Amino acid sequence: MKIFSSLCGVSDFSVGFAAMAFICYCSSGGVEHEESDKKDLICHFSPIGKKIQTWVDSGYYDGASILIAKDNQVILEKYFGNYKPETQVYIASAGKWLAAATIASVVDEGKLTWDDKVVQWLPEFTDIKGQATLSQLLSHTSGYPDYQSEGSHRDDYQSLEEAVKYIVKLPADTIPGTKFHYGGLAMQVAGRMAELATSKDWEALFQEKIARPLKMSGTHFTPVDTTGGHNPMIGGGARCTLHDYAHFLEMISNDGMYKGNRILSEKVIHEMQADQVKNATVPHNEYVANARGLTHTGIYGLGEWREMLNEEGEAVLVSSPGWAGAYPWIDKENKVYGFFLTHVNVVKANKDAFSSFYASTVLPMMMRDLLPKAKKRKQQK
C-alpha cells in the first residue's frame, strides 16, 4: 500500500509492515502508535531513496525503481522518474542469474548434469572447447572467448542454434577450468545444451520452468534486441519488471521454494551459490575486488557473483549486476533480498565518469548499515 507520500523528502514508498516485528510492530498503543512506527520506518530507509534520487537528478538514469525485502516481507518499494510497477527494462547481465536457474531446472530433471561436456550434446565442437563442462560454461571458466571479436557481427541472433554456429568457429582462449574470464558466449552454448536436452527452445523453457511458476509475466529473453549491450540472448538479453525479479529472488532466498511450491531443489540452489571458480586463475581487476576491495578467488558460482564470504568460505552476499545499473542481490546473513531496476543514460554517465555497474553496489551495504540502527531505535522507544 502507498502511504505518507511526502515524508522525509522521499515519496511513494510501499512498505510491508505486517511481519516487520523487528522494526515497527506495536502490540499496544492503538492506531496512532502504529502510524507513528510506520512513519519512523519510512524515514529510516530514506537514505536509500535519497541516494537513488541523486542519481536520477544528475541525469544518469531517466528513472529507476527499487524493492527490498527482509524475512520475505517487503520493507521498501519506491519508484523514481518515469518508472512505474509495469515498467519493463533490459537488465543485461542480471539475466545471467535467471538463465542459470533455468538450466538448473533441467539438471533437477536429470536431463543434464553439471559435469556434462559440450561435445556430448554438440559434437561439432571438436576442439578443446568441446571439453568444457556445463558448470564451466556458467561460471566463466570454460576457456571460451568472452564475446565475438571486434569487427565481427555481435551475437544478437534470435535463436541459440544460430548463435552456436558462430561460436563453434572461434578459437579457445584457454584450456577449460584454468582461467576466469567473464563474458557471454559460453552461456549461449549452455543454453543450447538445455534446448537439446529438453527438445524446447530457450524462451519456452524459461517460461515453463521459471517465469510462469514465479508469475513473472513481464520477463522474456526473446525477441533479442539488436542494440549493443542487450545481447547475447542468455548472457545479456533479458528484460523484466521490478516485481518479476523480486519473485525470483524470493524463490532463491527460500532455497527453491515460492509460495509453498518447489521451483528448484535445495541441491541445485547450493550448487549455484558454491565456488565454481575453483582452481582457475582470477585476474586482479575483477568485479569483486573492484566493488568490495576483497581478494578472495571464489568470486563466482553459476550465473551469480559471490561478493562476500563467511569464514567457512560460504557465500553470504550474492548478486548478478548488469552494466546498465540493474542490480539484484541476496544478503543471506540478514535474510534480505533486493532489486534495483534502472537503465543508464550512457552519454550523461560517460561525461561524468559515472559507473552504473559499480554505483549500485552501495545499496546492500547501506541496507546492512540501516537494519541494526532501525532495530536499535525500536528497542529504545
Question: Can you summarize this structure?
Answer:
This protein has 381 residues and is α+β, with helices and mostly antiparallel strands. The chain has helices spanning 30-44, 46-57, 95-108, 118-121, 134-137, 160-167, 185-198, 202-211, 233-236, 242-253, 266-273, 287-292, 346-351, 356-359, 362-380; strands spanning 2-3, 13-14, 61-70, 73-81, 89-90, 239-240, 257-258, 261-262, 305-309, 315-319, 327-331, 336-344.
Give an account of the 3D structure.
With 381 residues, this protein is α+β, with helices and mostly antiparallel strands. The chain has a domain at 91-309: Beta-lactamase, CATH 3.40.710.10. It has helices at 30-44, 46-57, 95-108, 118-121, 134-137, 160-167, 185-198, 202-211, 233-236, 242-253, 266-273, 287-292, 346-351, 356-359, 362-380; strands at residues 2-3, 13-14, 61-70, 73-81, 89-90, 239-240, 257-258, 261-262, 305-309, 315-319, 327-331, 336-344. A 6-stranded antiparallel sheet has the order 4-3-12-11-10-9, sandwiched between helices. Strands 1-2 form a two-stranded antiparallel sheet. Helix 3 (95-108) packs across helix 8 and helix 6 (160-167) packs across helix 7 (185-198). The longest helix is centred in the C-terminal third of the chain and has 19 residues, at 362-380. It starts with a strand and ends with a helix.
